[in-house]
């Protein structure tokens, strides 16, 4: 139904008398209760790892995006779609129950998206679901990927980064050799670990990049596409810098210098470097767009304000004469 504002002098209906609000509130509580075991499993497992530690931030960001749409929600026309809502909701719940019994965490977490979509359709319909489409899609980044997918991308990334590091050091006459993910430099032999492949950084930076483009990049689709396409190359470049730094530190200061907490700190530094490179690229794109606009006259010009006399003259009917006439 269409939400209406009470006319002056009429007391608005309290929320506990609004059937749609009560139904929506009850469904939200039910979803939280249903997925409480799922989130407890994530807290005790994947969210404690370096690869999936960004999961809670993804959920907070999706919640913030949904909260920003509250004005659109107030103006939206409610048209519940019970048939579609029940179908999607039941499929989501069945998927959640089945995957929870089989301990398939990835699909269990993913099932919350159709469950939430079904609840929205039951209460408000497709118009409201379109309003929350991006926050719901953003929840995809909270889904922990399966091990086989991580291995399929991690192994070639580790080998590629190791090869690049060894080739660069060889060009600068370092005593280096490389065999797969093993780098031998001087008297030391180092193995590039999974964390140095950058898959966790790719997922986290992809989420941040997409969030940034959606919220802040409204003036240029080309700029947004370039930023999204740059996420994987930037992450690989940042991991290359990390591995190169670790190898050089091991060469000059010994292997003990890169073990323990220092290795973990380089992971945070890597993510910071990737973010700096991402925002630096955006600054370059903004400056380049402004420069091209000036060179080719693409900048929008704001109309100048005319004085009242000129405006009155322009409003008069009849032919116009130039001041020199």
Shape: flat
- Helical stretch count? 15
Can you tell me the residue ranges where pLDDT is under 50 for at least 5 consecutive residues? 1-7, 13-17, 301-313, 318-325
Helix content: 55-70%
Distance between the termini: 64 Å
The run of helices and strands is HHHHHHHHHHEEEHHHHH
How many domain units?
Answer: 2
In terms of structural class, how would the helical and strand content be classed? mainly alpha
> Mind describing the biggest β-sheet?
3 strands, antiparallel
Q: Give the overall pLDDT as a whole number.
A: 81
> Approximately what portion of the residues adopt beta-strand conformation?
under 5%
Q: Please give the number of β-strands.
A: 3
Instruction: Report the C-alpha radius of gyration, rounded.
Output: 28 Å
Strand order across the biggest sheet?
1-2-3
Report what the structure shows:
With 325 residues, the protein is mainly alpha-helical. Helices cover 66% and strands 4% of the residues. The chain folds into two domains: 15-144, no CATH class; 148-293, no CATH class. It contains 15 helices and three strands. Strands 1-2-3 form a three-stranded antiparallel β-sheet. A hairpin with a 2-residue loop joins strand 2 and strand 3. The termini are far apart.
For this entry, give a set of tags.
325 residues, 3 strands, disordered N terminus, mainly alpha, disordered C terminus, flat, 3-stranded antiparallel beta sheet, 2 domains
């Amino acid at each position: 139904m269409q939400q209406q504002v009470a006319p002056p002098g009429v007391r608005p209906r309290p929320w506990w008398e609004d059937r749609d609000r009560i139904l929506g509130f009850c469904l939200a509580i039910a979803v939280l209760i249903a997925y409480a075991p799922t989130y407890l499993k994530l807290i005790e497992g994947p969210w404690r790892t370096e690869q999936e530690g960004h999961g809670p931030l993804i959920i907070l960001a999706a919640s913030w995006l949904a909260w920003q749409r509250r004005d659109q929600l107030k103006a939206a026309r409610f048209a519940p779609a019970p048939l579609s809502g029940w179908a999607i909701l039941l499929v989501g719940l069945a998927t959640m129950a089945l995957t929870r019994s089989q301990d398939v965490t990835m699909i269990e977490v993913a099932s919350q998206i159709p469950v939430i979509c079904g609840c929205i359709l039951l209460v408000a319909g497709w118009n409201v679901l379109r309003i929350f489409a991006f926050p719901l899609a953003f929840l995809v980044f909270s889904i922990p990927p399966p091990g086989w997918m991580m291995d399929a991308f991690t192994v070639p990334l580790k080998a590629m980064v190791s090869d690049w590091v060894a080739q660069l050091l060889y060009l600068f006459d370092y005593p280096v050799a490389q065999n797969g993910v093993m780098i031998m430099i001087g008297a030391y032999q180092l193995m590039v670990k999974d964390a140095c492949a950058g898959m966790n950084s790719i997922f986290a930076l992809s989420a941040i990049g997409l969030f940034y483009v959606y919220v802040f990049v409204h003036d240029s689709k080309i700029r947004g596409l370039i930023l999204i396409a740059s996420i994987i190359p930037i992450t690989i470049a940042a991991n290359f810098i990390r591995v190169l730094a670790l190898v050089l530190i091991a060469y000059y200061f010994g292997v003990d210098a890169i073990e323990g907490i220092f290795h973990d700190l380089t992971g945070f530094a890597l993510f910071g470097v990737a973010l700096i490179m991402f925002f630096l690229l955006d600054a370059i794109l903004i400056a380049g767009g402004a420069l091209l606009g000036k060179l080719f006259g693409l900048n929008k010009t704001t109309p100048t304000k005319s004085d009242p006399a000129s405006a009155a003259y322009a409003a008069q009917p009849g032919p116009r004469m130039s001041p020199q006439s």
